[in-house]
Design a protein that fits this description.
Elements lengths: L11 E3 L18 E3 L7 H8 L1 H9 L6 E7 L6 E2 L11 E6 H11 L7 E8 H4 L17 E7 L2 E6 L4 E8 L2 E6 L37 H5 L3 E5 L4 E4 L4 E6 L4 E8 L9 H11 L5 H16 L20 H15 L2
Parallel strand pairs: 1-2, 4-8
Antiparallel strand pairs: 2-12, 3-5, 3-6, 6-7, 7-14, 8-13, 9-12, 9-14, 10-11, 10-13
Helix pairs in contact: 1-2, 2-3
InterPro entries: Cupin_8 (IPR041667), JmjC_dom (IPR003347)
Protein name: Pass1-related protein
């Protein structure tokens, strides 16, 4: 699975990375960072260095029987989990299973050139692999809100963004990430916001066969891309809102990732604000939209100090805390439920 384009851009790499290399500056960077060998001492990575079967056996030794949802795509889609041709459905089928059964299926498919694609996406490790993180973890991120495992054979996941920051730790097999900065939104031809293959809006461009007649601006996006391949033990920091296209390049691939936000948990999600703005602002006359653009600039993007208002009366113009966030959320719910 070779991309028909390359990248001339460089990404920061830390060779022979240690846990102490994950400082506050790295974990809040606005640019991607590759940490070569960061998790090479994980028992899972060491098992994978012996064989795929050894890695599978190690993973299953921690697995419980809790249900998981996996996805299966026929061989003719080349591992690309995506919409169907008419964009009114998907080219894959969800199936309920257990983690052990999914891993067994992936191993059984190994080596077959015409194998279907099996993919287990973003599944909580604490839910299905209790005890695994006692021996396979990134200590500075032990308290990350969500730690997930991804497993499959050869697969392609369309370019999408995530709101949280992300440390992706490649444990088994090889993965390729093709990254684009957030300002390439227009050049990536993003599909529907509310009808998506995996929860997040995704680029409609097939990166292996880009149709430049249909998606001409993608040529501009390519000029800004970063292409990073991870071997077992390597990790990649992906900042919030960076677009990333992800490929599993081998017959058995396992990745563990950590998601966290740089704001307290009580803060709302920006996607909710975007959806509310579509509901409340997008259809206004242009002159009124300009007024609201200025309002957002004044109150949100370049907030004024509002020294003319007594501190006790600033309300939501003060820095948010858990109490005021709860009050604001209640007000919004009350208005939305009219």
């Amino acid at each position: 699975m070779k991309l028909p384009f390359t990248s001339q851009n460089q990404v920061q790499e830390i060779i022979n990375a240690k846990i102490e290399d994950l400082g506050p500056a790295q974990l809040s960077s606005s640019q991607p960072i590759v940490f070569r060998g960061l998790v090479k001492d994980w028992p899972l990575v060491k098992a994978a260095s012996e064989s795929a079967q050894s890695a599978a056996k190690y993973l299953k030794s921690w697995a419980n029987e809790n249900p998981v949802q996996a996805f299966e795509a026929p061989a003719n889609v080349g591992g690309r989990f995506f919409y169907n041709e008419n964009l009114n459905g998907f080219n894959f089928t969800p199936k309920n299973s257990t983690f052990k059964a999914v891993i067994d299926e992936i191993i059984q498919l190994s080596g077959s050139a015409q194998a279907s694609s099996t993919y287990l996406g973003s599944t909580s490790i604490n839910h299905i692999l209790p005890g695994f993180r006692q021996h396979n973890d990134v200590l500075p991120l032990q308290k990350a809100p969500l730690v997930s495992i991804w497993a499959g054979n050869r697969s392609r996941i369309a370019a999408h963004y995530d709101i949280p920051d992300n440390l992706a730790c490649n444990a088994v097999g090889r993965r390729r990430f093709t990254l684009f900065p957030p300002d390439q939104l227009e050049n990536l031809y993003v599909g529907p916001l509310d009808y998506t293959p995996a929860g997040q809006p995704a680029s409609l461009v097939d990166f292996h066969q880009p149709d430049f007649n249909k998606f001409p601006k993608f040529k501009q996006a390519i000029k800004h891309c970063l292409i990073i391949e991870l071997n077992p033990g390597d990790s990649l920091f992906i900042p919030s809102m960076w677009w990333h296209h992800v490929e599993g390049l081998t017959d058995f691939n396992v990745l563990v990732n950590y998601w966290w936000r740089q704001v307290p948990d009580f803060m709302g999600t920006p996607l909710d604000a975007l959806n509310h703005a579509i509901l409340a602002i997008r259809e206004l006359p242009e002159s009124q939209r300009q007024v609201w653009r200025d309002m957002f600039e004044h109150y949100v993007f370049s907030p004024a100090d509002n020294k003319h208002i007594p501190e006790s009366k600033k309300g939501v113009l003060n820095p948010l805390n858990e109490t005021t966030a709860r009050q604001l959320r209640a007000q919004l719910l009350n208005k939305l439920n009219r």
